[in-house]
Amino acid sequence: MGFLGSKAGLTPNLDRVALESDVFTHAYSQVPLTTPSHATMLTGTYPQFSGLRDLGDPLGKEIPFLPDILHHHGYATAAFVGSQVLDPKSVAIPGFDRGFDTYDADFHSRRAGESRYESEERRAEVVVARAENWLAQHKGRPFFIWIHFYDPHEPYDPPTPFKEKYAAAPYDGEIAYVDSAFGKLLGFLHSQGLYTASLIAVAADHGEAFGEHGEEGHGFFLYDETIHVPLLIKLPGQRMAGTRSSGSVGLVDLAPTILSEAKIEAPPAMQGIALTKQTSSYRSRADSPWPAHQQYSETDYPLRAFGWSSLHALRVEKYLYVDAPHRELYDRIEDPGSFENLATRSPAVVDTLSSLLGQFYQSTSGNTPAATPLTMDQAEQLRALGYISTGADVATVSSNDRGADPKEKIQIANRLHRALLATEADQYNDAIALLTEVVKDEPNLALANLELGSAYSRLGDYAAAMPWLMNAVRLSPDSGKANMELGMAFVSTNRWAEAAPQLEAARSKAPGSEDVVFTLATVYEQLGRTVDAEQAYKRALEMDPEDYRANLFLGRLLAMSGEPTSALPYLRKAVRIQPNSADAHKFLANVFVQLGDESDARQERATQDQLLAKP
Ligand SMILES: [Zn+2]
Questions:
Q1: Which residues, given as ranges, of the chain have pLDDT below 50?
Q2: Cα-to-centroid distance, 207 and ligand 1 (Å)
């Protein structure tokens, strides 16, 4: 960001708006994760109040929500987002469409052959084009529009020409690309006469780490590389143009600030403070009940992903205090990079800040319900988005047993993270090398065992896969994913008797998976358990009546059991779903023979022969 001192020249458009804005040089994110950080911005509340602390937590109806409030005051409201992690229809953030007239998301998990930009993510230019379309239709009345760019997130792959220009620094390339898309939006706002009268707030939800404290990406730690964020507010008429405010502010302050400018009273539940209420207040934060310049941040991600300790941090005056199993204290003036931990040298300061943090946390917490454990499908969706999720019940970690200190485990997290990226790219050998290291350090990490076993399975090495998958089953009693992978490995090696109990366990833990039910039916058939097989095929067809294989196999099973009349509709349907399947026509011909219908049987055989004759 040029307006924050970067000399890289990545953000000419943002820099131009910054000159007409109030620039907050010390703005801090409350959570270094996309979904809960945006929740902080739009609710004006802390995560301990809203309960939105990690991906998957829903927005409760009682939590104040900026778009909802503005909508009630007559504003047209719209969201244009760039990622599935902000899609209210995905597992990541149910309820986030409250109060929006339009919420443009509609993402889905990536299918084979699709790029991430056709499924779970949108390029900034696509987001801008869709937003402009909406603005053109709604510019005649007061509006609130939230435009979200996801490009500067892993994987760092800017489009051409930024890809080539920033080949050595692709993250920079993504920032430059987003700035160019933002420039297009600005041009549009000017051309529509919308720029001057609008309040425009620009913020990042969190930063990215590049190994400063061993972290790659974001979510694990609470140091400045992921928590110190850009924030600028251009007010209507360019009031406050050229102002630079150096007091500490939080993203939690954004919603109350926007309400204050719109002359709408913020609901009492909002915990942030309007930055522009008085021109001087955000510098001294005189209306805050807490010491000046205090900023709270937290992350639950190490706990939810690994069962390690969550982290909480307080930035107050010159100190950064991190509440971890081994506490940390940094001098933000002498040591802005937070490299020298002063905790053992200054125990009194640490104790004071620790109790200040505890009081702040207590007084700002709501009665949020405990997180509900994720289902197998939900955990899988989040995993596909690059977030590690065990689907484990985090409530089993008691507050006395804080779990391991994330800073002592970060290399393990990095390896697992890289292994998941390798798996996504079908690079199973790379994934196996990384995961082998991970399970050496953390033999009881269920996800690592599961991923290692699954990677061997993808390579067809089921003998190598099975011990890891058996570990995963033992270590993750709540999730059906490990049972399913182990069951599938048994199926692939024709070990039907062992496959059945695993798939049964997977079915009872994740009743929504049609694939599991169908495979279980085939296993029952192999074991001669005809009644169970029939029942399971029928269950699979209840879940997906258009499943070709289930129709075909059930029809064949019924025909072989001497029930051609019952078989007929299933095989007819299989033929209708896949008219070019020789098998379907063959089984149908056999049923016609059983029914004594020679002419139909001949016709089906003829079709079968034709299909088989095709090259
Ligand atoms: Zn993000």
A1: 278-290, 391-399
A2: 8
